[in-house]
Structures are given as C-alpha cells and as structure tokens.
C-alpha cells in the first residue's frame, strides 16, 4: 500500500500511450481530474473507506483507462465485500495484458492482479438455482434483484457472501422465493424453486335457466325446460277455453229459461208473472246464474286464450333440446265443475 500514491500519479502521467488501455487521447483537463480522483481514492482506501475509494477509482478509470486504476478499484471492491466484481476486474487486467513497451506502472499492476486474484477466488461463494414446474425460458429469476439468465439456471454461480434472496416469477404460476446466507468460500447445495401453476379461469358458458317445480310429496324439486313450460301453458290454455265453453253453454241455457218465463210486466231484463211467486223466484235465479256463468265464460276464454298463446310462443322460441335420457314430461289438463288445472309427471 505504501507505493499506491506514487503509482497513481505515475499511471496518470504515463497513460497517454496508445493501446488497449487508452482507446482515445484524454484531454489535459481529463488527465488532471483523473489524477485528483486517484489521489482521493488512495487516501480513502488507506482509511478503509472502501465506498469512496471505489467511486474515485472507477471515475478516474473512465476518464483515463489504465490497469493501475483498475487494480486499485478491485481492492476497493474486495473491501466492500463485492468479491465477484473484484474477481472479474482482476481477470480483465490479466486477460487484456500489458504490452512490453508500456509503462512500468502498468506492468506492476498486471503482476499485482495475478497475485491478488489468487486470494479473492477462494473467498467466492457458489450456488446453483433450479426451477421446477415451469420451463426456464418462461421464468424470470432474480438474485438480490439482479436477473439470472435462463441459460445460467442449474449451473454453479459465484456470489458474494452474505444473505441471498432468490425469487422466481412466471406468468400463470405462483411466485417462489428462497432466502439463504452464505459464508466466504461456501458451496451451497442447489436451491430449488418450485413453481405451482395458478388455477385457470373457467370459461363463461351460457346456461339456460330452468324453473324449479316442487314435487307433490315435498321432495327434491325437478326442473322444467322452456319447451315443457310451453306444453304446460298450452294445456292450461286449452283447459281454460274448455271451461269457457262449458260456462258459456250454461249461460245460454239460463238465457233460454228467462226467455221462457211468461212476462206480465218487465223491470230491466226480469219478467214478472202476476200472482205466481215461484215463477218470479225462478226468474231471479235464472238471472243470477246468467250473470255468473257469463262472467265465468268471459274470464275463462280470455285466460285460456292468453295461456294458449303463451304456450305457443314458448314452443316456437324454445331452443333445440338434446335427445336426453332425462325424464319425460307428461302434462294432462283437467276440467271440473268450478275448477281447472293440470296434472302430470316430471
């Protein structure tokens, strides 16, 4: 460390020569700035302020690229605990090499890199990440926020010692995560991230709603399709028309009875026979029956016609029903004196 300050100054002074470490001629202002940054970095490195030292050396190398700045940057990165970066910086210096005609400071930086990389390499921690349940190309895996390429999944990967957070995300799968802590030089067994597929949304299917009908014994309800409802309505409509016809015939008969009553005097539509109470009572009864059955016939015809029309409409607009093994619907309308209805099996 004693020679660091002189090394930086010498490096800046000699870094004007061409080659791999000097892609373009820096300006005089750049060289002065790099020299000042290098001096600040050396002071910070000696004081153990590795963050400041790394910042200064990195900026100095950007202004005047030189292996001397890089070897100092590698030492600062190692001091920060960023061993993987330090290792790669050393390897870059060694890979690029130094031409024989380059300054002595460059050659000394190369020699230092070859020695110091041997000290950093054993300190690297190693880990492999495997993804199960999804194809690697579908998954984005991050290690402490940095994306791991899919080609690197399953392979041993150098990492800095400390706490590692590995996360995997993929469309259609639940995210998976693992947190581990590694010490220097530790080779961790492969981390396995299992990706569970999310439930697929159910397709929306149009379903024809069916009307529940309770059974007569109070058991479980059965369901009637639109066609069945059409037949029921048609049957009830026919029953209503039949009731209208019956009550209409009765009303006609009552009209005939009124017409047969001998009329001595009339009040409205009532004929009175003098000195014959029985005839008068019969006329009143016939008149009441006429009104009752005429009203019933009218209502029955209207209701029956409406139900029959509704039934026909339901049958015409009913969707095609598959030939089912479902129970056969049987509807039988019935007409009784004073009652109408329908019975059947579902």
Structural class: alpha+beta
Q: Count the domains.
A: 3
Low-confidence stretches: 1-6, 8-20, 324-328
Number of helices: 8
Order of helices and strands: HHHHHHEEEEEEEEEEHEEHEE
Question: Helix coverage percent of residues?
Answer: 40-55%
CA gyration radius, whole angstroms: 51 Å
Q: What gross morphology would you assign? A: rod-shaped
Average pLDDT rating: 78
Number of strands: 14
**If strands are numbered along the chain, what order do they take across the biggest sheet?**
4-3-6-7
What about the largest sheet? 4 strands, antiparallel
Instruction: Give the distance, in angstroms, between the N- and C-terminal Cα atoms.
Output: 99 Å
Tell me the fraction of residues in β-strands, as a range: 15-25%
């Amino acid at each position: 460390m004693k020679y660091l300050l002189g090394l930086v100054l010498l490096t800046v002074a000699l870094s004007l020569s061409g080659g791999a470490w000097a892609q373009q001629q820096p300006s005089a202002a750049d060289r002065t700035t790099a020299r000042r940054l290098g001096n600040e970095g050396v002071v910070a490195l000696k004081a153990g302020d590795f963050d400041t030292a790394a910042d200064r050396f990195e900026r100095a190398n950007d202004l005047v690229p030189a292996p001397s700045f890089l070897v100092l940057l590698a030492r600062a990165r190692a001091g920060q605990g960023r061993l993987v970066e330090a290792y790669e910086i050393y390897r870059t210096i060694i890979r690029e090499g130094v031409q024989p005609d380059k300054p002595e400071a460059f050659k000394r930086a190369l020699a230092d890199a070859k020695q110091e990389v041997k000290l950093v390499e054993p300190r690297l921690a190693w880990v492999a990440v495997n993804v199960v349940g999804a194809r690697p190309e579908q998954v984005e895996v991050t290690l402490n926020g940095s994306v791991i390429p899919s080609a690197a999944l399953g392979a041993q990967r150098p990492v800095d010692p400390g706490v590692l957070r590995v996360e995997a995300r993929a469309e259609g799968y639940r995210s998976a995560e693992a947190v581990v802590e590694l010490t220097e030089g530790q080779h961790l067994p492969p981390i396995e991230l299992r990706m569970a597929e999310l439930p697929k949304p159910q397709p929306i299917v149009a379903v024809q709603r069916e009307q529940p009908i309770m059974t007569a014994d109070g058991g479980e309800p059965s369901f009637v399709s639109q066609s069945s409802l059409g037949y029921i309505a048609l049957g009830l409509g026919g029953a209503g028309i039949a009731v209208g016809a019956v009550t209409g015939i009765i009303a006609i008969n009552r009209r005939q009875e009124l017409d047969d009553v001998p009329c001595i005097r009339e009040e409205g539509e009532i004929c009175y026979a003098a000195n014959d109470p029985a005839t008068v009572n019969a006329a009143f009864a016939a008149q009441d029956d006429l009104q009752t059955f005429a009203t019933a016939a009218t209502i029955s015809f209207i209701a029956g016609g409406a139900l029959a029309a509704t039934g026909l409409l339901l049958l015409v607009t009913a969707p095609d029903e598959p030939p089912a093994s479902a129970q056969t619907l049987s509807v039988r309308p019935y007409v009784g004196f004073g009652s109408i209805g329908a019975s059947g099996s579902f």
